[in-house]
Amino acid sequence: MADKPHRTLQREFITSEGVDLRLTLASAGERAGAFLIDAAIIFGAFIALVLLTALIMAGRATGSEYLFSIVLLVFFFLRSGYFVAFELGSRAATPGKRAMRLRVVARDGGRLSGEAVVARNALREIEVGIPFLFLLGNAFSSDGSDTWTNYAALAWVALFTFFPLFNRDRMRVGDLIAGTWVVRTPRRKLGVSVVHAHVEPSFVFTEEQLAAYGEFELQKLEEVLRREDELSLIVVAQAIQRRIGWTGGGDDMEFLQAYYAALCQRLERNMLFGKRRANKYEQA
Known about the structure:
Helix content: 55-70%
Shape: elongated
Structural class: mainly alpha
Number of strands: 4
Mean pLDDT: 76
Radius of gyration: 25 Å
Number of domains: 2
Distance between the termini: 52 Å
Number of helices: 11
Low-confidence stretches: 1-5, 188-193, 272-281
Strand content: under 5%
């Protein structure tokens, strides 16, 4: 029974290589936890910025209003750029999401585009950022503020904050517009050197299986192994297994390390005899 909530969040995810990863969507609680971690980091940086500004302006009678405006502008780019920069990285996740073992993916199974990342995070400003700053400004206003306007801003924030609870895919409005999901990433022990990786003896490949790829694919495989991106490892492993007809099973990371080592040995051995294969399209 404990697994039932997890099963309800599982979704078919067909990659461009035709591999079904069967991803599990992040729960609303996991997403909230990731956001709180990221918010703490952003506000910590903002407080440091404010303290630095206060030190710079200490003893100065003029120019403080301009510097304060600059601080607010920097804060806007900080909170917006923070999410975009991290989600455009190879892990497609902010530090908060990485701590909660989450990442962003495109719902259509394709590559996560920069446009989608920018769109989903631009919507966050409309969902939460602008109303929050409005409320904060009214709280420190000396001439009073319209109570009903504050209530409207609070209702706006609450509507978008709890939106993931009212759709089966736990999406923010930003995810809905950008065509993205936030999903759990597989737990995996990484950090193994590509060159010195221990190869399990259970992985034995035939000459035909090794002949499926050449030097170009070997380099790309090494890039995937060094980058240590969980979803890329799964996709590449299953794509190679399908191409070479592998039925031996095994852990994806261990399979790729074993295939990489065996392919290295084959290509080096062939080069000694003057045989060289640049890529999978050349004859072996």
